[in-house]
């Protein structure tokens, strides 16, 4: 068997490999050894079965999160969005998984990558849909364009924003290894661009929706789990973003001030919690009863929109005044006095609705993204 690390989001260290067994280690983020979790590789020359052992899994940043987790796999020659789960064991130190079947080459990953080429193609498709305008906000550390895709009541170039339109911002993949966020955005953006249902019509007529499909393109391409090319966790940079270390956040933050914000959603994945949930900004210094009521209304709308969402499990609430303003959700909520939330999806499975074959899958990410638009319709009139 031969282990190959793809250029796009590939990351693994080979210790040794025979025809039927590979010993591997997870590598840290390129410029920050404090973060080590994501892996993605291809195994070729399989002859009916193989076992893989990631020997340092227990020492990863979130090593205990491998408990009850199953590795994702797909046919290397098949569609890039067709993945399944393989039998996986974790003993606290080593992550072991296996494959028994007829495929000669398989992709394995912590979660299916959202490839750069697919994102570029999606941006081109959205641009050609005639419903979207693509704005380049700036560049990443390594020169990747930071795009914002605008839908709805978009002013012509050189004209001021329509103040009557609700300004809705949704951003994803600040943490590049949380690739489910990329698939979520594909589902959401595709519905806005190509569907003609009532939800899309209402949103296009009453709001301006601005999407940043990937906040951390450099980290995503490198297969990093948490950081950008400078080793910065972008979701800890919002208070002090700068042009050298975190230009990705700096250019998006400037666009928020340029266009305004009535609603902000930051899309993530969580290694530990096997549920879909949102976290609010209750720890902000100027958190109000109005924002609390909006959070509850949006959560209730999500419950009505999709069976994937729930409100019982999630993060503990921050104490008053103890919110971390370096984080996007808290920073934006405080700066714009708006409904600002962080949405989390599982790496494992949705424990409320388990799927033995695929776990929390790409299709479910895309479906959740599309369903989130239905929740937005329910709250759009009360965002101000």
Can you tell me the CATH architecture of the largest domain?
3-Layer(aba) Sandwich
Q: Which strand order spans the largest sheet, edge to edge or round the barrel?
A: 11-12-14-13-15-17-16
Q: What's the number of extended β-strand segments?
A: 17
Total number of helices: 8
Helix content: 25-40%
From the spread of the alpha carbons, the general shape counts as globular
Low-confidence stretches: none
Average per-residue pLDDT, rounded, comes to 96
CATH topology of the largest domain: Aminopeptidase
Helices and strands, in order, run as EEEEEEEEEEHEEEHHEHHEEHHEH
Radius of gyration: 21 Å
Q: Could you name the CATH homologous superfamily of the largest domain?
A: Zn peptidases
How many domains, in number, for the residues? 2
Largest sheet: 7 strands, mixed
CATH top-level class of the largest domain? Alpha Beta
Task: Label the structural class.
Answer: alpha+beta
Provide an overview of this structure.
- With 384 residues, the protein is α+β, with helices and mostly antiparallel strands.
- It has 2 domains: 2-109, Immunoglobulin-like (Sandwich), CATH 2.60.40; 116-382, Aminopeptidase, CATH 3.40.630.10.
- 26% of the residues lie in helices and 23% in strands.
- It contains 8 helices and 17 strands.
- The chain has helices at 116-128, 180-194, 198-206, 217-222, 247-259, 289-305, 328-336, 362-379, and strands at 2-4, 13-17, 21-25, 40-44, 50-54, 72-75, 84-85, 88-90, 95-99, 105-109, 133-139, 145-152, 166-172, 207-212, 263-270, 277-279, 339-346.
- The protein has a 7-stranded mixed beta sheet, with helices on both faces.
